[in-house]
């Protein structure tokens, strides 16, 4: 897979510049040395909101689970949980940069709780009618999948057009994630900017 890569620049982590880069289809990742670059793959993965697949077994499980769901109550904690791995692209510098996006209202989370304990969730960046999914975590089985299901439900209720998940994985494929050329992705991206959606 080919992709454009934009070398790290401190100014690109200013919140107004970050949202500008996101709006053009780029996203940041830190390497093992903590250097943050911006990437724009020529093949992009999305989950079509009008063709979301909810596996039957998961639907049955969620209908009997005692999970509770919240939005935007612990955004930075969700990010910290997502970064708590042996190898992560979510560096401390990037977490600090996310705080700027949160202050502008562009950073959001879906949180999964059980007995008032955070057990899973995901976060992403929004701009107009687009949600750029970044990462998810799970401390108990099915929690991150539950967060994704609730995200899709919420985005549809709020009339979002695009759910961008960057790269394809087996985990995402079961929900209907598809890879598309960047040209097609750009068309959906621009269409999403005709909407003025609010996540919360």
Tell me about this structure.
- This protein is 34% helix and 30% strand.
- The chain is an alpha+beta fold and 200 residues long.
- It has one domain (42-192): Aminopeptidase (3-Layer(aba) Sandwich).
- The strands form two sheets. Strands 5-6-7-8-9-4-10 form a seven-stranded mixed β-sheet, sandwiched between helices.
- Strand 2 and strand 3 (36-41) form a beta hairpin.
- Helix 1 (15-23) packs across helix 4 (92-103) and helix 3 runs antiparallel to helix 4 (92-103).
- The longest helix is centred in the last third of the chain and has 15 residues, at 143-157.
- It is globular, with a radius of gyration of 16 Å.
- The mean pLDDT is 93.
- The percent range for helix content is 25-40%
Quaternary assembly: single chain
Query: Helix and strand string, N-terminal first?
Result: EHEEEHEHHEEEHEHEH
The CATH superfamily bears the name Leucyl/phenylalanyl-tRNA-protein transferase, C-terminal domain
Number of domains: 1
**CATH-defined fold name:** Aminopeptidase
Q: Gap between N and C termini, in Å?
A: 35 Å
Task: Indicate the proportion of strand residues.
Answer: 25-35%
CATH class: Alpha Beta
Rg calc: 16 Å
TL;DR?
With 200 residues, the chain is an alpha+beta fold.
State the main characteristics.
single chain; 200 residues; alpha+beta; seven-stranded mixed β-sheet; three-stranded antiparallel β-sheet; 34% helix
């Amino acid at each position: 897979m080919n992709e454009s890569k934009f070398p790290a620049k401190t100014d690109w982590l200013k919140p107004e510049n970050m949202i500008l880069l996101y709006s053009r289809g780029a996203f940041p990742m830190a390497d093992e040395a903590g250097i943050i670059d911006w990437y724009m793959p020529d093949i992009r993965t999305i989950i079509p909101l009008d063709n979301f697949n909810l596996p039957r077994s998961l639907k049955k499980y969620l209908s009997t689970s005692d999970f509770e769901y919240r939005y935007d109550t612990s955004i930075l904690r969700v990010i910290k949980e997502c970064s708590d791995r042996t190898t992560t692209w979510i560096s401390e510098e990037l977490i600090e940069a996310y705080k700027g996006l949160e202050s502008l209202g562009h950073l959001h989370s879906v949180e999964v709780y059980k007995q008032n304990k955070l057990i899973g969730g995901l976060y992403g960046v929004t701009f107009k009618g687009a949600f750029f999914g970044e990462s998810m975590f799970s401390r108990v089985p099915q929690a991150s999948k539950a967060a994704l299901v609730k995200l899709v439900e919420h985005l549809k209720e709020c009339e979002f057009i695009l759910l961008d998940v960057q790269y394809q994985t087996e985990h995402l494929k079961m929900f209907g994630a598809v890879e598309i050329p960047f040209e097609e992705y750009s068309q959906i991206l621009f269409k999403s900017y005709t909407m003025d959606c609010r996540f919360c």
